[in-house]
Structures are given as C-alpha cells and as structure tokens.
Amino acid sequence: MPVIDTSAAAFLAGLVTSLHCVGMCGPLSCSWALSGSGNSFMRSTAAYHAARLTSYALVGALAGSLGAMPLKFFQHGAGIVLPWLLVIVFIAIGIGVDRWMPKPALLAKPLRKVQLAAYKLPGTSRAALLGLATPLLPCGPLYMMFGLAMANGSAARGAEFAAAFGLGTLPLLALAQTQLHRLTSKWPPGTLQRVQRGLALAAALVLAWRLRGTLDFGSQEIPSCCHAAM
User: pLDDT value at position 37?
Assistant: First the structure.
C-alpha cells in the first residue's frame, strides 16, 4: 500500500495556495508593516510568521482533537481518509470551487478589533498580534485546511498538519511582504490564479496516482497497518 506523508502534502498545499496569498491576501498580510526598516523590519517579519505558525498549530491541534472521535468509525483512520481528502481539496482549488466556500461573517468583527488594537502597538508587538489573528482572515483555502486537520485524528497530528501548511505558505508570503508591489506589477492576480490552479490540478493528479490501490474494494484481504513476515 502506498505511504503518503500527509504533512508533506500539507506543505505542498501551502506552496500552492500561497499564490492566492500573494495575489489576494498579500496586502492584508503586509498591513502590520506601517513603519520600520532594516533589522526592525526583519524582527517584525519574524515575529509575524512565528506567531502565525503558532496560531495555525493551535487551531490544528483543536481541530485534530475534535476529529479524533469520528475517525474511530473508519477502519483505517486518517491513514486512508486524509490523503484522499487532500486530493479533493487540490481539485477544488484547481477548478476554483474554493472561492465559493462560505466565510463566517462572525469572524469579521473580532478581526477588526484585533487590527485596531494592534495598530496601537509598536512594530514587533503589532506584527506578532496580527500573526496570531491570521486564522480570522476570510480565506477559503485556509478554512479548508483547518477542516482537514480534523481528519488527522489527534491534537498532535492536527497541529503538525496545520503547521506544515503554514510553512508551505511562508516562502512566497515572505517574498510578498518585501516585494509586494514589484510582484503584483509583474504577476497580476489573474496570472497568479491560473498558475495556482494548474499547480493544484497537477498536485491532485500526482497524489491520486500515489494513492492508487488504496481503495481496492475487490480484494478479499483486509489491508493491515502492520507488515506480516514473509
């Protein structure tokens, strides 16, 4: 049976969806950088991303805990369920369905309050607070990945999955925070969107190919997580 590292797949999902971050959420993720340069800017950038990854891990841990009980009804738990859910997510992003995903309006007011409070703080503290509040952003792909964290079956695996996704978004998002205007002038949102969808469909195809045989219901032998001695 093929073995899929779901954290690696989550990291790949982060890389793919970070194109969305650059084109659509880049200005929001840069909103903390009101002033500062050089070492001050780098400290604020590091604080923002450290806080963002921490908040992702915390939400992922909560989601993984909530999903532990339902997964007990599946014979093979997250090992079979989650990789195929990731295939579905990549396909959804590839065909643009993720943009229709409902975004809870109740999060808008808390986010606004956090932003107003953050702007009263000095640079590094402001960046850290906004990083912690990132899960409140109206982002369809982010909500999908938090939902998938539930399918990891435990708090630890949920946290690892969500953190891996966050790490995947880091390279392009950090680049956008330093070169946002240059990037958006060379790569308009329409181009970024087409590249993102192409990469998502390619990732879905590769992952589905790696998973071939895991849903072979015709076999009389029940797959086991343990390898029997030959």
Answer: 58
